[in-house]
């Protein structure tokens, strides 16, 4: 029976009678076959047995109406990874013929263009289950998805699928239900911040413990205490390795997307987050505290700070033509300083990133211009009345809106950013979507009148960013 995607007919009631373990067994078969090369021989590839298997995966992975369990849908994404041709992480490579047929599967399968949207839907679905999903479990689910996305990105028609979803997101940034690409990008940034922060914290702990061990401080400890320290060092090292691998995959995905769809990242909903994230990690990796993360045998922990610095600088360059992004970089009072990019240039020379320096200097000059304006604005607007400040971010509101349930007033960008991860009122947990918020027109007029008055008093006519 031919299958037409996307499937628009409702799932039959009889599907409810089929236990989940039937699908789970298929997942186990396909994934184990990849890990034990020879369990499914290349004759199976030639016979086209993987094509109906891919149809099954797309059907159930991409439709929560047919597969309610988000964990099972995530396991189906593992099947996609098991169907890939040879990739760098393979311990037992497939034969050239088997690898060729698998590559053709993703180029010729009649429903291949559903893959990208299905993947993003599952990626987001793991976060939005409403259940308590352990970080390690969540990232273990996402690891195969990164490998599949990496493979698909090399094919133009799949890259075009990312582009279509990005343009849909650009046109619907404040829709009642945020577009899947927008939620995906938001979660990528959440993951990158968490993983890199955890990784750097663990690397600093490892350095402290290695320094104590080498200095002889451990020699005065009892045998039991030394054994405990070694066990702790091993455990922290394992966590650091996990965070570094997943952090690297997440950052590289962001590098691709910022180059391909910079307009999404520069929207007011996301631009402050991406700017502050880049500033924070660049400062840690090129600033005065970078030696805190230098440990013995960095490869053992999959720690590659040079690669991360290059990736971060590439994102600055890709986004740096947008005035809103440059303004957001300069507005980050926590990590930005005029010396930040100078420090980065020094490191780039040493790690082979000289080709980025010219473009990064142009970005730095644009950011510096906004930083000067920001300093003047801070002096003018420093004494804003409390009612003009966003209750979550403590920043001056430019577009205040009223939340219908709690009746709290917040800035529009603040609540839009919150709703990407949590569709509820942050003050009382009531369900909330962007179409329900109401502009606080009276307060907005008073805020902008106050800003204009402050500028007149100091002779500035330029509007605030």
Automatic annotation (TrEMBL):
Keywords: Acetylation, Cytoplasm, Transferase, Ubl conjugation pathway
SMART domains: Ubox
A biological process from GO: protein polyubiquitination
UniProt keyword Electron transport present: no
Statement: the UniProt record of this protein carries the keyword Transmembrane: no
Recorded superkingdom: Eukaryota
SUPFAM superfamilies: RING/U-box
GO-annotated cellular components: cytoplasm; nucleus; ubiquitin ligase complex
Catalytic activity entry: S-ubiquitinyl-[E2 ubiquitin-conjugating enzyme]-L-cysteine + [acceptor protein]-L-lysine = [E2 ubiquitin-conjugating enzyme]-L-cysteine + N(6)-ubiquitinyl-[acceptor protein]-L-lysine
Residue ranges occupied by any U-box domain in the UniProt entry: 383-457
Pathway(s) where this gene product acts: Protein modification; protein ubiquitination
Enzyme Commission number(s) of this protein: 2.3.2.27
Record's subcellular location: Cytoplasm
GO molecular function: ubiquitin-ubiquitin ligase activity
PANTHER family: UBIQUITIN CONJUGATION FACTOR E4 A, UBIQUITINATION FACTOR E4
UniProt record similarity statement: Belongs to the ubiquitin conjugation factor E4 family.
Job of this protein: Ubiquitin-protein ligase that probably functions as an E3 ligase in conjunction with specific E1 and E2 ligases. May also function as an E4 ligase mediating the assembly of polyubiquitin chains on substrates ubiquitinated by another E3 ubiquitin ligase. Mediates 'Lys-48'-linked polyubiquitination of substrates.
Protein name: Ubiquitin conjugation factor E4 A
Provenance organism: Pectinophora gossypiella
Phylogenetic placement of the source organism: Eukaryota, Metazoa, Ecdysozoa, Arthropoda, Hexapoda
């Amino acid at each position: 029976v031919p299958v037409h995607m996307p499937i628009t007919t409702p799932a039959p009631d009889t599907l409810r009678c089929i236990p989940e373990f039937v699908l789970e067994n298929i997942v186990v078969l396909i994934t184990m076959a990849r890990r034990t090369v020879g369990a499914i021989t290349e004759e199976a590839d030639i016979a086209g047995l993987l094509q109906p298997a891919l149809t099954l995966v797309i059907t159930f992975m991409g439709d929560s109406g047919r597969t309610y369990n988000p964990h099972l849908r995530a396991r189906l994404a593992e099947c996609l990874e098991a169907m890939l041709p040879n990739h760098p992480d393979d311990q037992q490579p497939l034969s050239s013929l088997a690898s060729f047929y698998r590559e053709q599967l993703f180029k010729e399968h009649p429903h291949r263009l559903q893959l990208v949207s299905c993947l993003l839907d599952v990626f987001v679905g793991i976060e939005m289950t409403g259940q308590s999903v352990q970080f390690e479990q969540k990232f273990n689910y996402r690891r195969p998805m990164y490998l599949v996305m990496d493979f698909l990105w090399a094919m133009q028609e799949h890259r075009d699928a990312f582009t279509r979803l990005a343009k849909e997101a650009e046109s619907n940034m404040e829709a009642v239900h945020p577009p899947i690409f927008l939620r995906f990008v938001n979660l990528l940034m959440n993951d990158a911040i968490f993983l890199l922060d955890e990784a750097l914290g663990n690397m600093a702990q490892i350095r402290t413990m290695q320094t104590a061990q080498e200095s002889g401080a451990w020699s005065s400890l009892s045998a039991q205490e030394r054994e405990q320290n070694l066990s702790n060092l091993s455990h922290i090292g394992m966590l650091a390795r996990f965070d570094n691998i997943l952090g690297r995959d997440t950052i590289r995905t962001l590098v691709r997307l910022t180059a391909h769809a910079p307009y999404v990242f520069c929207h007011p909903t996301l631009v402050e987050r991406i700017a502050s994230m880049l500033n924070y990690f660049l400062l840690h990796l090129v600033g005065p505290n970078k030696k805190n993360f230098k440990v013995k045998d960095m490869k053992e922990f999959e720690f590659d700070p040079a690669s991360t610095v290059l990736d971060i600088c590439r994102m600055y360059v890709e986004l740096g033509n947008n005035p809103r992004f440059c303004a957001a970089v300069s507005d980050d009072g926590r990590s930005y300083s005029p010396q930040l990019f100078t420090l980065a240039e020094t490191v780039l020379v040493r790690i082979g990133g000289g080709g980025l320096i010219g473009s990064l200097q142009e970005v730095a000059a644009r950011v510096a211009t906004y930083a000067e304006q920001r300093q003047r604005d801070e002096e003018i607007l420093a004494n804003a009345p409390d009612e003009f400040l966003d209750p979550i971010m403590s920043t001056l509101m430019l577009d205040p809106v009223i939340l219908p349930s709690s009746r709290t007033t917040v800035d529009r960008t603040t609540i839009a950013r919150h709703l990407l991860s949590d569709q509820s009122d942050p003050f009382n947990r009531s369900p909330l979507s962007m179409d329900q918020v109401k502009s606080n027109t009276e307060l907005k007029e008073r805020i902008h009148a106050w800003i204009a008055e402050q500028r007149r008093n100091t002779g500035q006519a330029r509007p605030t960013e």
